[in-house]
Design goal:
The complex is a heterodimer. By secondary structure, chain A is of the alpha+beta class. Chain A contains 31 helices and 22 strands. In chain A, helix 25 runs antiparallel to helix 26 (772-787) and helix 29 (866-877) crosses helix 30 (883-892). Chain A is globular and about 100 Å long. Chain B is 38% helix and 10% strand. Chain B contains twelve helices and seven strands. Chain B has a seven-stranded mixed β-sheet, sandwiched between helices. The longest helix of chain B is centred in the middle third of the chain and has 26 residues, at 184-209. Chain B is globular and about 60 Å long. The chains are: A alpha+beta, B alpha/beta.
Chain lengths: 900, 422
């Protein structure tokens, strides 16, 4: 294993303080050589004799143990970075010395900041973040509000579980109340009545007559237009019209068909109305727009035998053939449905686009499902897509990557048209589309609502449907009071579920009851009156916050219910279920083996997906993937669905490691990838079919396998057009090597010397090495990024790169991935770089453990956690860093089981 | 009780520019008490996040006073040259995030977190209007990651917590102008209901509070403060029960406006909000990436902020021009909106435009442009302060000019004399 020499930082580890005391164990200190260096250059003006600017360098302590001292050091760093000091006419530091000094100061200040912010393990009570709130409502009410409609979590740069950063305001309290009330209403609609399942099917060929008649209409318009145009042009050639024709052309040099618009000035020219057009504008639009170029394509479509029994997903053209739509008319109750399609791919269809995308009309940029089409025209297949919907809907289908935006649709058509004179192949065929639901299996009301649902809905003027028949266990009987009679008991039981097992205080219950009663008195039916009380519970602090009271400022072990909540919000981002609460109440959860058993059970539960996605997304900074639009003219294969799939690959890989309990080291290097057919095609791997992600063994010598070989990781280190070695290098240091570079400093002078030159990426970034302010960080960052240059901006392997600049031309060069870590080992290519990174798995594991802890505890990890982090890493190391071992270690740690 | 007449007056108001509401309102006040005729002051703060193109936005440092030459970046504001002043040389000493142009822009927050300038003003001017202040945000997702920095709007409350804003013109429009077609009695019922909900959650909050550690108590205080704020708002709502929301001088904005379109409609909305006296304090954290996109600029916003001659600098300059041109439109509107005494909304409004980021990663010489007569500052000048003068000195000058009695704000060391002469 390669371990680099420790960099300039000296950490003074103080004697361990008493267990649990809230003091950091680390203080930041600048290098021993720094104060004398500063004294030599600065003390003349900033010393005892002459405190220039009121600033003395000689009294600045080397140990940064207070915010005040940190501020003074930051001033030194800032004036050095800004090039303000030493003054131009004074003796300057050598570039190398200056770079070292800046690196030392910036790192020491980062360490000081971390040490000063160290909470000593103290956690802050936190509210549910928006994901957790949505999931918790889902578990309680069986409906899920969209997280992006919920109050914002505010703040970036930390996990969304960090209590300190989760604020609440008046607006938010009101929003919670409104969202909860709306969700409860939806629950009533969804579960309050039995909805018989229905099926609605549409044969796709019903679209065929429309396409044919629109095409015929357009052809007729074209025919009339040509007749009119010829007549006008013939008129313009007459001697008496020649001067007028020249005038018209001269007056409208940029207008298409100027003669046609000026027809009135030409003697004897016929009116467009003679040809059944409203006016010249109408005639020109219908006769000469670019749909005319699509006639061969539409003709090929209209004469294809397969459209007698179905339809193709063709090029979108509002004039003739629009996206295939599936209208679901009428009233459909909210619920879970399945959308079914009988589909086939033709032999001409392109492998990259042999997928069908299903979205909703009006939300075409929104979430859409994408399925591989494996059926052939001889043997079509049936695709099933689960959907949650309500009311009437229009679903829209298209071929993947064919029409993500107008430009792309236009380009795909004309690229093919220019090559074959027709247009793209007719690739995906649909026989029929149907929707079925609401699915009976998904109509089981959540347990929290069961009791409330025993009270029938108030009769609605138009209601003819039967009311819910609930399981007999909750059916009111003669011996048991009805829910309406026992409303207090009902509210109490609901609150106990909502408060994650904690019973509400009687005084609170009284208030809820008063709300209910006033609503009833005002004439509201049972459910409406109850809604108000329930929504109040769902915006009250016991619901919104994970409260862990400590009577004194002492740390104390969590009780069972608190532990259950910590665990479920860690591994599910949602509330504890009955089994977990039961384990909490029986005391089983307080025992290490009971806890371990729950962790295993919870990780096997599908709800753990929420943890995998949310944690991984934030830990690895995947949000960067959405910062830029990928230029589809340059990277047509990396269309939005491929981008989604590549993002999913990161989550799916972590999920696989968790499921199979494999080593975390696989994220640095592995001989497999976790992909579906779409990504397998993207990576050029054969033999993978279907939309499910699975482990696929890699051929020898593949650059894939591990995060560094993933398309999404490469793409995150680009701006959508070009790679960014700086972003990539910084990401590797931050996320893989546990050695984050200091934050970008303000006020560093910009270098513009090399403007207007055509340079390679390396040549451009070489400037970073010339200025000490830049070199202090970039000498560490950039070489790693250069080693990743074989991956282009969308993760495809390349050996050449080029740069184009208007006015200067294009430069192409062979990529040189070789380099060396700053003060570290050299590598000659990506493989060697990856080996070095992979050898530092302990550093990677440390970063992972810190991230897990921060996410699980909802607080930043400080130096006072060093021992804890080491314990976790050491324990995982004994099991070859298997992923579940980390989670067990976190959950068994005193920090996780203690409130402090 | 002035409300019924006010309502009639406001309901009668339909057109944008010739809106009589202020005039009539002022007239009635004048009729009752001459002393009350002074026009209310207003403040509008516009945060642009990633700063400006230094080379082409700032006037030359030695070209000061009234006769200075406008730069290319400010050229679209030429017709208003006498109506705004550019201030150079000021800095927030505690700003440290070179990608966060808005987080501390209005607070100058240092080691101790502080209230933002707009909220200080709202404390003074907000009691007579339906909304004490209005916070607007660009609708682009991840706005804080794109040049503004952490925060939920430009505004921060007295405990240094971010104040949420409205993220789309449609939401803001509904808050401001959507009619309450619910009968009065029912709305009174509604208030009673809301109060009983507050009583209930407070009851629960008290039981959570028992036995909390100091840090957790502090956290729960946010909730208590939230409830108190709702109570204050309900009390205000109660006072305004008799008054219908003003008739909108604008059509409802369309959904999905982005970039330039969105900024312009937000400007219309904020003028309408001031015009109808719905509020007297508005902040607006503007879109950046979406603005570029709507201008047909393909460069990403962060790349643009690190401009150097070429595409990126061109993008940065194009952005400046668009911002100046939109600001000029806003000033047109403020000037065209007349008050009783023949003065305009512009004469009583302070418009502050700028960012903590100058350009690129520079956090000194924050771009600062002030327009309008709300704070009585010297207009039409180019003022250059000594390097690293606290930007809070400018804010203090504006606060005092707006009638806030204070001698300090943030890290201010005094007022800016050049802004208060002439």
């Amino acid at each position: 294993m390669v371990k680099f020499p420790a960099v300039s930082l000296l950490l003074a580890t103080l004697a361990a303080t008493a267990a649990g005391a809230a003091e950091s164990t680390v203080v930041a200190r600048v290098k021993a050589s720094t104060p004398p260096l500063l004294a030599a250059h600065c003390a003349d003006c900033h010393g005892p004799d002459d405190a220039g600017g009121g600033f003395r360098i000689d009294t600045l302590p080397a140990e940064i143990d207070s915010a005040g001292t940190a501020d003074r050091w930051r001033k030194v760093l800032n004036v050095l970075n800004a090039g303000e000091m030493p003054p131009k006419d004074a003796e300057q530091l050598t570039p190398a010395a200056k770079a070292d000094l800046l690196e030392d100061l910036s790192k020491a200040i980062v360490v000081a900041g971390k040490a000063l912010a160290d909470t000593g393990g103290r956690t802050t009570m936190r509210r549910l973040n928006r994901r957790e709130y949505a999931n918790t409502l889902r578990e309680l009410l069986g409906v899920q509000p969209r997280p992006d409609g919920l109050p914002a979590d505010g703040g970036s740069g930390t996990f969304d579980t960090a209590g300190e950063r989760l604020f609440i305001s008046a607006d938010q309290i009101e929003q919670y109340h409104e969202i909860a009330a709306a969700a409860i209403q939806e629950s009533w609609r969804r579960y309050g009545t039995v909805h018989p399942s229905r099926t609605h099917r549409v044969e796709a060929e019903t679209s065929t007559p429309g396409v044919r008649s629109r095409l015929a209409k357009r052809l007729d318009e074209r025919r009339r237009f040509v007749l009119w145009k010829n007549a006008v042009e013939a008129a313009s050639r007459k001697p008496e019209n020649q001067a007028a024709a020249a005038d018209i052309r001269k007056a409208n040099p940029n207008q298409p068909e100027p003669l046609l618009h000026g027809w009135k000035k030409l003697q004897g020219a016929p009116s467009p109305t003679d040809f059944q057009f409203n006016d010249s504008v109408h005639a020109v639009e219908m006769g000469s727009r670019d749909w005319n170029l699509r006639v061969p394509y539409h003709t090929a479509y209209a004469s294809h035998p397969a459209i007698e029994k179905g339809a193709f997903l063709g090029v979108n053209d509002p004039y003739v053939n629009i996206h295939l739509q599936f209208r679901v008319p009428g009233e459909w109750p909210p619920g879970a449905y399945v959308l079914r399609l009988r589909v086939a791919a033709t032999e001409e269809s392109l492998p990259d686009r042999r997928f069908i995308v299903c979205g909703r009309a009006g939300a075409e940029d929104g979430p859409a499902d994408c399925c591989e089409v494996t059926g052939s025209m001889k043997e079509p297949q049936i695709v099933e897509i689960p959907v949650e919907t309500e009311g009437s809907q229009i679903f829209v289908f298209r071929e993947k990557g064919s029409y993500d935006n107008d430009n792309r649709g236009h380009r795909i058509f004309f690229d093919a048209f220019n090559a074959n004179g027709i247009g793209p192949p007719l690739g995906i065929w649909i026989d029929w589309m149907e929707i079925e639901g609401p699915l009976p299996a998904k109509q089981q009301a959540p347990s929290a609502l069961a009791e409330l649902l025993t009270v029938p809905a108030a009769p609605q003027p138009t209601a003819t449907q039967p009311t819910a028949t609930q399981p007999t266990a909750t059916q009111p009987t003669a011996t048991k009071p009805s829910a309406e009679q026992d409303i207090r008991g009902v509210l109490e039981r609901f609150a106990t579920q909502a408060f994650r097992g904690r019973r509400p205080e009687p005084a609170f219950l009284n208030r809820l009851l008063a709300i209910y009663e006033r609503e009833r008195a005002a004439g509201q039916p049972f459910r409406e009156a109850a809604t108000e009380s329930l929504a109040t519970m769902l915006s009250s602090p016991h619901f919104l916050y994970l409260a862990e009271p400590t009577e004194s400022q002492e740390r104390r072990p969590l009780d069972g219910l608190e532990l259950a909540s910590r665990l479920s919000y860690f591994l599910w981002s949602g509330p504890p279920d009955d089994a977990l609460l039961e384990s909490a109440r029986s005391g089983e959860l307080l025992k290490p083996e009971g806890r371990a058993a729950q962790v295993e059970r919870m990780l096997d539960d599908p709800r753990s997906r929420e943890f995998v996605t949310a944690f991984t997304h934030q830990w690895l900074g995947v949000e960067r993937l959405d910062f830029y639009q990928f230029k589809d003219s340059v990277y047509p294969r990396y269309d939005p669905k491929t981008k989604d799939a590549s993002r999913q690959e990161i989550y799916e890989t972590v999920a696989m490691l968790l499921k199979e309990n494999l080593s975390l080291r696989n994220l640095l290097k592995s001989d497999f990838v976790v992909v579906n057919s779409m990504l397998a095609r993207y990576y050029g791997l054969d033999g993978v079919s279907g939309d499910a992600y699975r482990m696929v063994k890699l051929p020898d010598g593949s650059p894939r396998g591990g995060l560094l070989g993933m398309a999404a990781v490469a793409a995150m280190g680009s701006n959508g057009e070009q790679t960014s070695p700086v972003e990539r290098g910084a990401w590797v240091l931050r996320k893989l090597l546990h050695d984050p570079p200091p934050p970008a400093p303000p006020n560093v002078p910009q270098i513009t010397r090399l403007e207007g030159q055509l340079l390679t990426t390396r040549e451009r970034l070489r400037m970073h090495q010339e200025e000490p302010q830049c070199a202090s960080c970039h000498r560490t960052i950039d070489p790693i990024g250069f080693g990743l240059e074989n991956f282009d901006a969308v993760g495809m392997w390349r050996s050449k790169d080029s740069y184009q600049k208007t006015g200067l031309g294009t430069k192409e060069w062979e990529i040189d991935p070789s380099g060396a870590f700053h003060n570290g080992p050299a590598f000659k290519d990506f493989n060697e770089l990856r080996e070095i990174v992979a050898s530092r798995h302990t550093d990677f594991a440390t970063g992972f453990a810190e991230a897990l802890l921060a996410y699980a505890l909802g607080r930043p990890v400080g130096f006072s956690d060093d021992d804890l982090v080491k314990t976790i890493v050491d324990r995982a190391a004994t099991k070859d860093f298997s992923v579940r071992e980390f989670i067990h270690a976190v959950v068994q740690s005193p920090a996780f089981c203690t409130k402090q | 009780m002035p409300m019924p007449s006010r309502r009639r007056v406001l309901q009668a108001a339909t057109t944008l520019l010739a809106l009589p509401s202020l005039e009539s309102l002022g007239f009635r006040r004048f009729a009752r008490a001459a002393a009350a005729a002074a026009r209310p002051k207003r403040m509008v703060c516009l945060g642009i996040g990633y700063g400006v193109t230094e080379e082409t936005w700032f006037p030359k440092k030695d070209d000061v006073g009234a006769g200075y030459t406008l730069t290319d970046g400010l050229a679209p504001l030429a017709r208003h040259k006498d109506s705004f002043t550019v201030v150079q040389g000021c800095t927030h000493a505690f700003a440290g995030d070179p990608h966060g142009g808005s987080t501390v822009w209005l607070t100058g927050a240092g080691p101790t977190k502080s209230l933002s300038m707009d909220q200080v003003v709202a404390g003074q001017l907000g009691s007579d209007t339906r909304f004490a202040s209005l916070q607007l945000n660009g609708s682009e997702p991840g706005l804080d990651g794109a040049g503004h920095g952490p925060g939920l709007s430009l505004a921060w409350d007295r405990r240094g917590k971010p104040i949420a804003g409205f993220n789309s013109p449609v939401i803001a429009f509904h808050k401001l102008f959507s009619a309450d077609d619910v009968p009065l009695a029912q709305r009174q019922q509604m208030l009673v209901k809301k109060r009983s909900v507050l009583d209930a959650v407070l009851e629960d909050a008290k039981s959570v509070q028992r036995g909390l550690s100091a840090a957790d108590t502090d956290k729960l205080d946010e909730y208590f403060q939230g409830v108190r704020d709702i109570e204050t708002r309900l009390a205000k709502e109660e006072r305004w029960l008799g008054a219908a929301k003003p008739k909108t001088p604008l059509p409802q904005p369309g959904e999905g406006l982005v970039g330039r379109e969105e900024v312009l409609i937000m400007y219309d909305l904020l003028v309408a909000a001031l015009q109808t006296d719905s509020t007297r304090v508005v902040t607006y954290r503007q879109p950046i990436q979406h603005l570029l996109k709507s201008l047909g600029i393909a460069v990403a916003s962060h790349d643009m902020s690190h401009y150097h001659p070429g595409d990126r600098m061109a993008a940065s300059q194009k952005r400046d021009l668009a911002q100046s041109e939109m600001l000029a439109t806003l000033l047109d509107k403020l000037k065209a909106t007349k008050e009783t005494d023949g003065s305009s909304l512009f004469d009583h409004t302070t418009v502050v435009f700028g960012s903590t980021i100058r350009s690129i990663h520079y956090l000194d010489n924050c771009p600062t442009l002030i327009a309008g007569g709300g704070a009585g500052i010297t207009l039409g000048h180019h003022v250059v302060q000594p390097r690293n003068t606290p930007l809070c000195n400018v804010w203090l000058t504006l606060l005092k000019g707006t009638g806030v009695e204070t001698d300090a704000f943030g890290d201010s060391t005094g007022t800016v004399k050049e802004l208060t002469v002439g």
